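Hey, quick one: can you model this chain's 3D structure?
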Amino acid sequence: QVHVVESGGGLVRPGDSLTLSCAGSGGDSLDGYAVGWFRQAPGKEREGVSCLSSIDSITYTLNSVKGRFTMSRGKDKNTVYLQMNSLKVEDTAVYFCKANIYGFEYWGQGTQVTVSS
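Sure thing. Here's the predicted structure for all 117 residues.
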């Protein structure tokens, strides 16, 4: 079992920026593994936001966030970030991180992002 932990959510206004973090905890590391950010808004299905391959190339970005959200891996290689700029009300959701490790999927508990004026 790999422990994945997200952080950085919060309440922001439209147009603001926020950076989410995802990292392995308890001795687990995400270094060298593919990681994806997903989100689920109330009453909607979970959708993929952005995915990063094991060699740190972006393999997917949701159309509605292109040009606003950027996914990257930190220098420690364990932490994966989702930089979110020009946030919109419709970005409000619980954001989840998923790591793909040797064919298994490990999800974090999610972090709430609320965009409201």
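One thing worth noting: DSSP finds no helices and eleven strands in the chain.
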